[in-house]
Design goal:
The structure holds two protein chains of two kinds.
Chain A lengths: L1 H25 L4 E5 L6 H17 L2 E5 L7 H13 L5 E3 L4 H13 L4 E4 L10 E4 L2 H16 L3 E7 L5 H17 L3 E8 L4 H14 L3 E6 L2 H13 L7 E5 L3 H8 L5 E5 L1 H16 L7 E3 L2 E5 L6 H4 L5
Parallel strand pairs in A: 1-2, 1-3, 3-4, 4-5, 5-11, 6-7, 6-8, 8-9, 9-10
Antiparallel strand pairs in A: 10-12
Helix pairs in contact in A: 2-10, 3-4, 5-6, 7-8
Chain B lengths: L2 H10 L5 H5 L2 H23 L6 H26 L7 H18 L4 H24 L5 H20 L4 E2 L14 H5 L7 H19 L1 H18 L4 H27 L1 E2 L7 H11 L11 H20 L4 H28 L1
Antiparallel strand pairs in B: 1-2
The chains are: A alpha/beta, B mainly alpha.
């Protein structure tokens, strides 16, 4: 009996504590929940910290949630509907599957809750704006760096994650178009797709190297592709002879940059993405007119600036 | 679906006395679980004005449907003192197979539904054979099936979601509301209706049929059942097959809700289902358990998740609290058993 009473008391105390917490939160004025694609991954934690920074600066309250894996589409929908039930003034949303979320987004629209899409767009005109990395511009910067590092002439290749996703297409086109428009002496000999899979990208890189003995550089368009390129070059014993440029971060990619096997990489700005999402939501609440897309920025990083606090803050392991 | 067979079985077997059933230990556990569910709801209603609103209650019901059906599937297996780790990825596999039949092959809706349930039952049958005939421990056999099915879903779908845009009416399975059409103030989605139909059918199957009787018997004392001349292997295979078929229904529910079969989804869902079963008072050592308890367990999980979200509790703490509640629920059950043994 005593034990049972102890259990009940503990539970009761915990619940009372929680309710106090909840009431304290309700005192806040503007509330903006962010429903993200993920939660545990360092990239999303960085987005979260940006959102929290904005909340502090703009004196609003934000919460940040996302499913455990990017496969859990239904869990994300549950999170979105709980967020809507709280009758927030605005909502930030990074859709795992835009189609699955449409019924709820329509509900938000009917309830006049502005939706700010972040990270990737939603195939719908419901979001008032989308805060995302300008992948085309970021890949064009990678092309400029590549040109600079290989002396503005010679053969280069691309290993891209896929030819259907928005990021895959934009990064490929951004790189290819910049080379074609600005560097007439650089020739793109091959664009291959490895699904962002390290092993597949390794095999692809090896076959590209086999086919092009004079190749000077390879651009890997996301984390998995970039690691694959590094591995492929190593396995073909061409390290030091090929300029490799990557995308995003992660421990392996950072190590490759530090040990010189990769020249450098483009990083998105997840902190800025979180910040802009909240900032745009606040503007939407005030009824301000917003641009269709808000670029959240990107940086070039290499051995020389990888430890720079501004860069280190947006990199993750 | 399973309803017609279950109803015939029910009329064929005489019912037990209501009073006798009300005082069974399993019933008391159910009452305890039900009281916890009510307590949670009362607490969240006081803690947040947004909790007790129709919209939110509907989304709680909606979010329970898939886990509830999976938990029912698990209940059968757990009562036999087995375990099924493959229910989550089997659900996904069934959703993908429905996608293949409906979207790739362009067959009518009824065939897609039948395919999901058929492939669920088939996979359950294979698990059953692995366990009963080949004597592979249930944990390992279903762990293997979990991975195998996850891989197959990815292979068959080409690792991309299969959308059901060309099958009008498919999203109605989960998202529309037959009840809401009749009573506009009660927009309960069909997924919830299906959950309750499955629960009723499963309850009848478990309490009123020979399959149910052997399910409990296998969990209490398999050896004694075998020695009394019952083909335990056969009944075990049947239990896993039924459980697999129920996972097929869960596959339809989730695919219909998302209007797509998401091939990478499913792993981890088995643990939510097992948690619901255990909170509902079914013992992992087999021999006892009820469908009603399982349903209440599933609702406790989703009320807790939704309520903590409504209160904006940080996500990492939500997980901590859910873990604590699961442990407390099972501990309360143990205390109750201990005190009822003393009397």
């Amino acid at each position: 009996m005593i034990q049972r009473r102890a259990v009940t008391t503990t539970l009761g105390a915990a619940l009372i504590g929680l309710s106090g917490f909840a009431h304290a939160q309700q005192a806040q004025e503007i509330y903006i929940p962010l429903v993200s694609k993920g939660f545990q991954h360092q990239f999303w934690q960085a987005v979260k910290s940006g959102a929290e920074q904005a909340a502090k600066d703009l004196k609003v309250k934000v919460t940040f949630e996302g499913p455990e894996t990017e496969a859990m589409v239904d869990k994300q929908i549950d999170m979105l509907s709980a967020a809507l039930a709280k009758k927030p003034q605005a909502i930030g949303f990074a859709a795992l599957d835009s189609q699955a979320a449409i019924p709820l987004l329509k509900k938000a629209q009917a309830a006049k809750i502005p939706v700010v899409a972040f990270d990737s767009g939603v195939d719908s005109d419901i979001p008032v704006t989308t805060t995302t990395t300008d992948n085309k511009a970021a890949a064009a910067l990678a092309a400029d760096k590549m040109a600079e590092l290989i002396g503005k002439s010679g053969e280069v290749a691309l290993v891209v994650h896929d030819q259907t996703s928005r990021t895959g297409v934009d990064r490929r086109d951004g790189f290819v178009n910049r080379i074609k428009s600005t560097y007439p002496n650089i020739k793109i000999v091959s664009v291959q797709y490895g699904g962002g899979d390290q092993l597949k990208s390794t095999e692809i890189t090896k076959s590209i190297l086999q086919a092009s003995p004079n190749l000077k550089g390879i651009f890997g368009a996301n984390e998995g592709s970039a690691i694959g390129v590094v591995n492929g070059v190593k396995e073909m014993k061409r390290n030091g002879k090929i300029v490799i440029i990557g995308y995003d971060s992660g421990k392996q990619q950072k190590n490759a940059i530090l040990d010189g096997s990769m020249a450098g990489a483009i990083t998105q700005n997840p902190v800025g993405m979180g910040y802009k999402t909240v900032e745009m939501a606040v503007k939407a609440i005030k009824g301000e007119k917003l641009p269709k897309v808000v670029d959240t920025g990107f940086f070039w990083y290499d051995k020389t600036n990888i430890a720079d606090p501004k860069i280190a803050a947006v990199l993750y392991d | 679906m399973t309803t017609p067979t279950a109803t015939t079985a029910a009329t064929a077997t005489p019912g037990f006395s209501l009073r006798a059933r009300l005082f069974r230990p399993a019933t008391r556990q159910k009452l305890l679980a039900f009281a916890s569910l009510i307590a949670l709801m009362v607490f969240f209603s006081f803690a947040s004005p947004q909790f007790l609103q129709t919209d939110n209650l509907v989304s709680i019901l909606q979010s329970t449907a898939v886990n509830g059906v999976l938990a029912i599937a698990c209940t059968f297996v757990i009562i036999t003192a087995g375990i099924d780790l493959s229910v989550g990825t089997l659900m996904t596999f069934c959703a993908v197979m429905a996608g293949v039949v409906l979207t790739y092959m362009g067959m009518p809706l009824a065939l897609g539904i039948a395919a999901a349930i058929f492939f669920g039952a088939l996979a359950g049958f294979i698990s059953g054979v692995l366990i009963a005939k080949l004597k592979i421990p249930p944990f390992i056999a279903t762990l293997g099936m979990m991975m195998l099915l996850k891989g197959l879903s990815l292979v068959i779908s080409g690792t991309k979601p299969i959308y059901f845009n060309d099958t009008p009416g498919f999203t109605a399975i989960s998202q529309d509301s037959l009840i809401g059409d009749l009573i506009p103030s009660l927009p309960i989605p069909n997924a919830v209706l299906i959950l309750f139909l499955v629960a009723v059918a499963a309850s009848i199957l478990l309490n009123r049929t020979i399959l149910g009787r052997y399910t409990f018997a296998l969990g209490s004392n398999e050896e004694a059942v075998r020695l009394s001349g019952v083909n335990t292997n056969f009944w075990k295979v049947v239990v896993y097959t039924v459980s697999g078929g129920i996972c097929g229904i869960a596959g339809l529910l989730i695919a219909s809700r998302l209007n797509s079969a998401q091939p990478a989804l499913g792993q981890g869902y088995e643990l939510d289902a097992i948690a619901a079963v255990v909170i509902g008072g079914t013992s992992l050592s087999g021999g006892t358990g009820t469908i009603v308890g399982t349903i209440i367990g599933a609702f406790i999980m989703s009320v807790l998740t939704n309520g903590l979200r409504i209160l904006s509790v940080a996500q990492e703490w939500q997980t901590v609290i859910t873990g604590v509640i699961i442990i407390l629920a099972v501990y309360a059950d143990i205390l109750r058993r201990r005190s009822s043994n003393k009397h």
